[in-house]
């Protein structure tokens, strides 16, 4: 017989909500390199209250960002679907969407580049977004919407560069990500006249492995987007 977990008392639930809300604010503005003590101060609770619910900052990051990662994965799948009929619009809008998400949430920017997170759901959503972004890039290239030497790993290049821009100029130029993205989109669309350097080997291998790896039996299925009839 399965026994459902007892619901939190009203005051305990209020404290938990205050902690999660405060953590979301702190993570968005400061990133994940913060302490539970700092979050407790912002939430207006004792640090012991946080430790009764969350064992580490990493666990709290995963809880706070789970919902956002689900929305991010959904948006990536929508872009892959749109690329069937509007490949350039789908790709361009998605690139700017990614950059804006980074600019408005430093923790999100950190975890999509190094997703060492605590929950299965979080990891599953990261994987779902990755699979859909590979579909998006492949479809945009097949349609001739972006240059043929664009590699999926160039998205990592873009995200890492934008992360540095945000860290370095986020306070003085919070909207710089948009101009940066527009410049890069022009480059992605141009037909190259010179051979580019190869993409970083580790990133390129990761993308190839994701394309070919069989799904594990216990892995959450990724929603597939079907091809249109010929």
TrEMBL record:
HTH tetR-type domain span: 13-72
InterPro entries: Homeodomain-like_sf, HTH-type_TetR-like_transc_reg, HTH_TetR, Tet_transcr_reg_TetR-rel_C_sf, TetR_SbtR-like_C
Keyword vocabulary terms for this entry: DNA-binding, Transcription, Transcription regulation
One Gene Ontology molecular-function label: transcription cis-regulatory region binding
DNA-binding region residue numbers: 35-54
Region of interest (Disordered), ranges: 199-230
Pfam families with a match to the protein in the record: TetR_C_43 (PF21597), TetR_N (PF00440)
Source organism, top-level taxon: Bacteria
Name this polypeptide is given: TetR/AcrR family transcriptional regulator
């Amino acid at each position: 017989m399965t026994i459902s977990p007892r619901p939190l008392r009203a005051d305990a639930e209020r404290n938990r909500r205050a902690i999660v809300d405060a953590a979301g604010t702190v993570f968005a503005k400061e990133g994940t390199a913060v302490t539970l003590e700092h979050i407790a101060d912002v939430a207006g609770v004792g640090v012991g209250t946080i430790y009764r619910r969350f064992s580490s900052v990493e666990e709290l990051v995963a809880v706070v960002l789970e919902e956002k990662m689900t929305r991010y994965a959904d948006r990536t799948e929508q872009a892959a679907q749109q690329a069937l009929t509007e490949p350039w619009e789908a790709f361009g809008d998605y690139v700017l969407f990614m950059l804006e998400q980074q600019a408005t949430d430093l923790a999100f920017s950190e975890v999509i580049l190094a997703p060492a997170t605590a929950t299965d759901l979080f990891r599953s959503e990261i994987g779902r977004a990755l699979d859909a972004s590979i579909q998006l890039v492949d479809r945009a290239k097949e349609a001739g919407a972006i240059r043929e030497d664009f590699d999926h790993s160039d998205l990592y290049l873009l995200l890492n560069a934008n992360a540095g821009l945000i860290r370095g100029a986020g306070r003085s130029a919070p909207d710089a990500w948009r101009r940066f993205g527009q410049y890069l989109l022009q480059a992605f669309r141009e037909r190259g006249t010179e051979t580019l350097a190869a993409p970083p080997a580790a990133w390129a291998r990761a993308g190839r492995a994701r394309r070919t790896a069989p799904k594990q039996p216990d892995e959450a299925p990724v929603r597939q987007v079907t091809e249109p009839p010929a």
